[in-house]
Amino acid sequence: MSLIKHPKSLLVIIAEANLEKLLIKDIQKLGAVGYTVIDVRGGGHSGVREGTWEADRTIRMEVIADENMADTIAQHVLEQYGKDFGITLYFSTVLVLRPQKF
Amino acid sequence: MVLDVVILFFVLGVFARLVGSDLRLPEALYETLSIYLLLAIGLKGGIELSQQPLSSLAPEILAAALLSFLIPLLLYPIFRFAKFNWADSASIGAHFGSVSVVTFAVALAALSKQGIDYESHAPLWVAVMEAPGLVAGVLLARAAQRRAESSQLMGNSPSTVSAKVSSAQGGWKTIAHDVIFGKSVLLLLGGLFIGAIAGVEGTAPIKALFIDPFKGVLALFLLELGLVAGGRLAEVKKYGFKILLLGISVPLCLAVLGMFVGNLLGLSAGGVAIFTTLAASASYIAAPTAMRIAIPQANAGLSITLSLGIVFPFNVVIGIPIYIQMGMWVTS
């Protein structure tokens, strides 16, 4: 028996932890139902962020939504925070079992 | 032994970082230690506060808040003159206006070691001096930004979706909330409050945890800060000699200002030394977090390198012994 699966967009936002509260408010206003946040560390264009103290923390936020909504959120995040903050965004398609949750 | 033992832990942290050691304190421990220190400092001040009348403290609280607010305003033209842009000038000023709790803790440890008395309610000054400097920094940045925008006449306005949705707008509320209810001020004032209500007897059962091991915990925290500050030293080179010069001269100038204010308030030698230390210290916890959101255009790496890579090590190793001497000198 194979399960019925539904395609959705997984938007991953890697950002400075300072932005967490703002991002959560923004994505909720834009209509996303849920999100997951994980503390991470790494390096890139904005330098190395080791996550050892307050101002050096980085988060990875995952949002599963319809493609259009994921695009809207990504566009907003990029316009609002992309200029002054270290932000990485990427999409992938994931399969979910209960599409109404997203 | 000239250096306090806790400073040696800081030096060990810096050394470990410079030689590329894999030493790394778990983030959860850092978080726990910082909560402990803030609560313990608050509690200790509160217990002392419970034994004396509150009425005489108003001038000190007012002066502490005013000093914190004025520091960014005084520094702004100096940083602009040193060719920093408006955002960095305002942000760095806010770092200096706000205070470093650990620098304060090291000053207390040094005073106790030398047997110099100080006002026991000093943690109250720290709690009061955390926020006004940040507010002044944001005010400066907002004014400068408005000037820059009106001279440009047009800029790239964000799309309608972003403008409508952004939670970053209405920043004042967020900043005020994050500073006043942020963990530093909340725990310091909370500790003061609990200590003042419970008094010596009430806090006796928790004394073994919060009062006695304080210095050991401070040593561990300084080891961690040494690791973080050591990581910033390479950045000092990147920003050049100017930042090193400012990181040393600005605390010394602010120390003189703090010394005069402390003396005007009629504080004891130890009290003036603490006021001097607070004026000279730069925040590396509350300020970077608040400024990142309030003045996103500012270069966070620059202000953190300055406050944590230069000002903090300078103050704890060289500055505090000088500030204590200044306190003794001005009150003698």
Which structural traits does this protein have?
heterodimer, A: 102 residues, alpha+beta, 4-stranded antiparallel sheet, two-stranded antiparallel sheet, 2 helices, B: 332 residues, mainly alpha, globular
Greatest interface (CB-CB under 8 A), with counts per chain: A-B, 27 and 28 residues
Count of helical regions of chain B: 16
- Main-sheet strand order of chain A equals 2-5-1-6
| Largest sheet descriptor of chain A | 4 strands, antiparallel
- End-to-end gap of chain A: 25 Å
What Rg of chain A is obtained from the alpha carbons, in whole angstroms?
Answer: 15 Å
Uncertain parts of chain A? none
Shape of chain A: globular
Number of DSSP strand runs of chain B: 0
Q: Distance between the terminal alpha carbons of chain B, to the nearest Å? A: 25 Å
| Low-confidence parts of chain B | 154-159
The assigned structural class of chain B equals mainly alpha
Q: Enumerate how many helices of chain A there are, as a single number.
A: 2
The helix/strand series of chain A, from N terminus to C terminus, equals: EHEEEEHE
Structural class of chain A: alpha+beta
- Tell me the radius of gyration of chain B: 20 Å
Strand content range of chain B: under 5%
Q: What is the oligomeric state here?
A: heterodimer
In round numbers, the mean pLDDT of chain B is: 87
Number of strands of chain A: 6
Structural description of this entry:
The complex is a heterodimer of chains A (about 100) and B (about 325). By secondary structure, chain A is an alpha+beta fold. Chain A has helices at about 20-30, 65-80, and strands at about 5-15, 35-40, 40-45, 45-50, 60-65, 85-95. In chain A, the strands form 2 sheets. Chain A has a 4-stranded antiparallel sheet with strand order 2-5-1-6, with helices on one face. Chain A has a two-stranded antiparallel ribbon with strand order 3-4. In chain A, a hairpin with a 2-residue loop joins β3 and β4. The two termini of chain A are about 25 Å apart. The interface of A and B includes residues 55 and 56 of A.
